[in-house]
């Protein structure tokens, strides 16, 4: 079986945002918006991607995947990154897309986000909705706001997300 964790480690070192596994091709990654092959990686067979997918799921999740042909999971590669993984069926083969999420939650200032987010985060109550297309920074924006709350006041905050991306 492929050593996917080494591929994730290599991707994290060069700040890849995503790593993709698809049979018939070597794994590839998105770095600064450009999709490129993972250096020195071997072409994957349908068995490789199937084994990888099965290794990431328990029996119950695998059964659901068999029924619905798609599954989203979150997990952590210790010391490297948190992953949001989409496992999907594509033309009778299994593919995986892994989004790398930094273990350290960035700050509002480090991302040059509008300062009004700090003001919103400090309000004692309310509902915040952040919307937009995939990959535009919704989860990271909310994570920075939650980190600001956790650093500056005591509060009971409820998030609804599946899978969970950032851990606090």
TrEMBL record:
Question: Which stretches make up the Bacterial type II secretion system protein E domain?
Answer: 14-166
Stored InterPro entries: P-loop_NTPase, T2SS/T4SS_dom, T4SS_GSP_E_ATPase
The UniProt entry, under SUPFAM superfamilies, shows: P-loop containing nucleoside triphosphate hydrolases (SSF52540)
UniProt GO molecular function: ATP hydrolysis activity
PANTHER family in alphabetical order: TWITCHING MOTILITY PROTEIN PILT, TYPE IV PILUS ATPASE PILU
Return the similarity comment.
Belongs to the GSP E family.
Q: What is this protein called?
A: Bacterial type II secretion system protein E domain-containing protein
- What organism does the record attribute this protein to? marine sediment metagenome
């Amino acid at each position: 079986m492929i050593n996917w964790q080494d591929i994730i480690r290599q991707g994290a070192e060069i700040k890849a945002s995503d790593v993709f596994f698809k049979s018939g091709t070597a794994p590839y990654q998105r770095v600064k918006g450009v999709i490129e092959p993972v250096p020195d990686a071997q072409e994957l067979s349908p068995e490789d991607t199937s084994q990888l997918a099965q290794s990431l799921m328990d029996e119950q999740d695998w059964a659901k995947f068999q029924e619905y042909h798609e599954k989203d999971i979150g997990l952590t590669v210790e010391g490297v990154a948190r992953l949001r993984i989409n496992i999907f069926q594509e033309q009778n083969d299994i593919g995986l897309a892994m989004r790398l999420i930094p273990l350290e939650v960035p700050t509002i200032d480090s991302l040059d986000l509008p300062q009004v987010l700090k003001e919103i985060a400090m309000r004692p109550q309310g509902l915040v909705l952040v919307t937009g297309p995939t990959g535009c920074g919704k989860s990271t924006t909310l994570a920075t706001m939650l980190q600001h709350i956790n650093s500056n006041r005591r509060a009971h905050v409820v998030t609804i997300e599946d899978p969970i991306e950032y851990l606090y």
